[in-house]
Amino acid sequence: MLKAMFFDLDGTLLDDEKRLSEPVYHALLVCRERGIRLFVATARPPRLAEMLGWTEKQLSLFDGGIYLNGGCEKLADSVRFFCLPVRAVQQAMEITRDFPRVNFALQGETGTHAFRFPLAKEFYATWGVADADILPITAFSLQKTVKFLLFYDNLTDAQKKLPDALYPRLFKALREDARVLCTDAGMVIQITGYDADKCRGIERIRMNLQLQADEIAVFGDDYNDLDMLKSFPNSVAMGNAPLPVQRVAKFVTKPNIENGVGYALQTFFHIK
User: Fold this and answer.
1) d(C-alpha 232, C-alpha 221), whole Å
2) pLDDT in tens, 84-127
3) Is 134 exposed, middle or buried (0-12, 13-18, 19+ CB in 10 A)?
4) What is the CATH number of domain 4-81+196-267?
5) What mean pLDDT is predicted for residues 38-61?
6) 78-81 and 103-108 beta bridge pairing
7) Domain 86-193 carries which CATH code?
8) What is the pLDDT of residue 125?
9) Other C-beta atoms lying within 10 Å of the C-beta of residue 139
10) With 53 labelled, which of 22, 88, 94, 147 sits at a CA distance of 20 to 30 A?
């Protein structure tokens, strides 16, 4: 019997307008009513009210989760961060300087951010970032970087693929210190420490809750979800996921814009 579920957000729980639709909300509510504990497993920071406009209606569905691709774990009132090694941050910045138009963001454990190039002011709200959270790189503590992001323009509506040479260089240089993932159809690169990944975070929460692996279900749609989809027997890939992601999951459901989560809950787990 399932006792906990972990959901990626973008491309999984959220539709293409970054909304938690009413059908998906009600499907999750049914799970809660059955006593199943719900968690997010996302690349986003734990600022869903600011970033997505969630109110207590949505937030109260969840008991915590994995944020920043595992860089932050939340269970009830307990919060834990896993920072990147300083030398990995410095190497990533140095490599990116060879790509003049690529932006990067350092995301800190206290919610502070430092950007290579400032964003248009209206875009900061989509990051959940207030003016006081934005620091120059010179004032940002490299020892407290949880995630390093590379992208063009504004991350949340990226349309341009990053240079093909960038990911291999980062991967080769950082492979001893960090995880380097290329996601969002090549438009985003995400870098976290080795202790920070969704799968390890879910495993730590599983052990804390004293659950068996087959008492958990995981849902995802992108390459940063591969490990968790491979590692848990009740794994669901969205119909909009790339084929390599779909192939590692036990189940493949409908796309996120077709209430794929609700369909999976009813069809594969018989939760109606």
Assistant:
1) 15
2) 999 999 999 999 999 999 999 999 988 899 999 999 888 888 88
3) middle
4) 3.40.50.1000
5) 94
6) unpaired
7) 3.30.1240.10
8) 84
9) 8
10) 147
DSSP single-letter state for residue 270: -
- Residue 226 zone, left/alpha/beta (φ > 0; ψ -120 to 50; rest): alpha
Q: Each residue of 146-179: b (16+ CB within 10 Å) or e?
A: bbbbbbbbbbbebeeebeeebbebbbebbeebbb
Q: Where are the domains of the chain?
A: 4-81+196-267, 86-193
Using alpha carbons, select from 6, 73, 76 the residue that is nearest to residue 38.
6
Amino acid at the residue 62: F
Q: Which two tokens stand for residue 117?
A: 């190039």
Burial class (CB in 10 A: 0-12, 13-18, 19+), 16: exposed
What is the spatial distance between Cα 152 and Cα 5, in angstroms, rounded to a whole number? 33
**Which of 8, 2, 12 has the alpha carbon at shortest distance from 257?**
12
Place of tokens 């491979």: 230
β-bridge pairing 234-237 and 188-193? unpaired
Give the closest residue to 218 by CA, choosing from 206, 201, 236, 231. Answer: 236
32 with 38: CB under 8 angstroms? Answer: yes
Helix (H, G, I), strand (E, B) or coil at 107: strand
The tokens describing 150, both together, are 């590379």
User: Tokens 């809750």 label which residue?
Assistant: 209
What's the whole-model pTM score?
Answer: 0.89
Q: HSE on the CB side for 193, CA within 13 Å?
A: 21
Burial class (CB in 10 A: 0-12, 13-18, 19+), 94: exposed
